[in-house]
Amino acid sequence: MKKKGVSLQTKIIILIITVIFISLALVGAFVTQWAVNNVQNKVETNVMNVAQIVANSTGIRDALDNKDPNWSIRDQVDMMLNSINQIDFIVVTDMNGTRYSHPIHERIGKKFVGGDETRVVKEGETYISEAIGTLGKSVRAFVPIYNREEEQIGFVVVGTLAESVNEAKHQVILTIILSSFFGLFIGIVGAFLLAKNIKRSLLGFEPYQIAQLYLENKGMLEAIHEGIIAIDEDEKITLCNESAIKILKLEDDEIVGKKILDVFPNSRLVEVLNSGEAEYDREQQMNDTFIMTNRVPIKDNNNVVGAIATFRDKTMITRLAEEITGVKQMVDALRANTHEFLNKLHVILGLIHLKELEKAKKYIIDITGNQQQIMSTINSRIKDSTVAALLLGKISRAKELGVEMTIKDTTLLENKHGRIKSSALVTILGNLIENALEAASKSNKNKKRVSLNIAEEEKKIRIIVEDNGIGIDDKDLAIVSDKGFTTKPGSKGVGLFLVKEAVKSLDGNIEFQSKINEGTSVIVNLLKGDKND
To answer: Which of 427, 369, 379, 438 is nearest to 405 (CA)?
Structure first.
């Protein structure tokens, strides 16, 4: 799994800041547009309300109807401008556009400027307009003025300079921007704190490291033959590997999260959890299975936060112990195999020293091909890996002794053989083949041979080992498998005795056929089940 360049903490910070920034940008744009429109609407509403008030003022209406000889309109408008905020001018004119009020008194009596008064003069319409007047560009409201006879005698224009409106809009935009930056700053600080907290909760591991640890732990749990069950401080199962399910023959493999005593009423994990004391190599029966188990508490500093048990099927342990009885045969076979390869390595080294590189290549290819052919033959006919390993070693041993060892085409041995253990087959085959190789190697024949045939049937296994060696004297055939009998100097005579005992324990039989200087044939029959079956 490749290491990523950017750490989890950096990713979280970048992600949160990006989300906050995009969110603030979108919300800011929406709020800014709304606020600007709101400012515009408020300005237009304000100028229209003031214009309506002026147009409906009795004093202004009567004074305009009488042509205002006393300048009362000017005075009234000046008082309004001084008391109303966000209004820059109020202009009252007659139907000819002559001003009766203006913020600059010198412009009173002069014609109205802007060109947007046509609608109010000709049609008496009330409206909002934006135009350039003598004071500059402004937003202004036009309202017609009527006398008591409901005749239009003029109009009023109330406005706010565009410069004032824009300033108000800019102020709103600036407030929103500053608020957004403050929110972004708070978000950045929060992102750093959150990322740091998440990093701490993950014990400083990066995601790829967590994934790698998960895959490694999963692989280890699947590879381990021992059953593993763990519980937390609430006595709930947090882990149960496949081996545990198989060993305990659980029908429901969904036990994670359940109380340990609900699944295994006689489990001692709760006692280990409460006491904090480990228990090793304890025998126990769980779900009709006898197991050998170790239980240890899980501690965080000095606090017990759980407990874990590892166990194996006692039957499996016993089976392993039984298989150890064939260790000597396997060691001898492996030693022979190693010796053969050392000899071959010496040949290769010699050819290299002689600079016969092509011969060295050909020799390597030949022995590799031969070895692969032998292994392929054995693997295809011998499914029991322990027996297959033994035969490979014996073939190497035969080559050392100058004996041709063959496995007949009719040979077939499955992986499981009922009650016949691999250890028993190793004992029987190892000793018979070794004796055959020794006898053949002592023969004066040019071609020294040993052949093996293993035939596995439904109820029995038949083994035939033949050699063309020195043979066995007729008088010795009856006692050849007795303990202590041997024809080899230095031997204790236990090989064939072990074979006889192994055959006897399996309710089988063994038969020796031999002629001096012609060879020996040993036939073994083993029952896969009880003889009464």
So the answer is: 438
Q: Rounded to an integer, what distance in angstroms lies between the CA atom of residue 512 and that of residue 500?
A: 12
**Rg over CA atoms, the chain:** 53
Mean of pLDDT over the chain = 80
Residue 227: enclosing H or E segment and its boundaries?
strand 227-232
Q: Which amino acid is at 183?
A: G
Beta bridge partners of residue 236, listed in sequence order: 259
**Correct CATH for 1-223 of 3.30.565.10, 3.40.630.40, 3.10.450.50, 3.30.450.20:** 3.30.450.20
- Statement: residue 251 has pLDDT above 80: no
Task: Tell me the three state secondary structure of residue 174.
Answer: helix
Q: What is the pLDDT of residue 143?
A: 93
Which residue do the tokens 């060691």 mark?
Answer: 331
Contacts of 88 (CB under 8 A, 6+ apart): 103, 135, 138, 159, 160, 161, 164
pLDDT digit string (tens) for 59-113?
888 888 888 777 888 888 888 888 888 888 899 998 888 889 888 888 888 888 8
pLDDT for position 464: 93
Candidates 3.20.20.370, 2.60.120.200, 3.30.565.10, 3.30.450.40; correct CATH number of 356-527?
3.30.565.10
Outline which parts of the chain fall under CATH 3.30.565.10: 356-527
Cβ neighbours of residue 389 closer than 8 Å, sequence gap 6 or more: 330, 333, 334
Q: Which residues pair with 146 in a beta bridge?
A: 152
Question: What's the whole-model pTM score?
Answer: 0.40
How far apart (Å, rounded) are the C-alpha atoms in residues 119 and 481? Answer: 135
Q: Is residue 266 within 8 Å of residue 347, measured between CB atoms? A: no
Dihedral pair phi/psi, residue 498, rounded to 5°: -60, -40
Distance between CA 526 and CA 354 in Å, rounded? 53
CA dist., res. 309 & res. 296, Å (int): 7
d(CA 405, CA 394): 8
Instruction: Yes or no: say if 301 and 317 are a contact pair by the CB < 8 Å rule.
Output: no
Sequence letter at residue 81: L
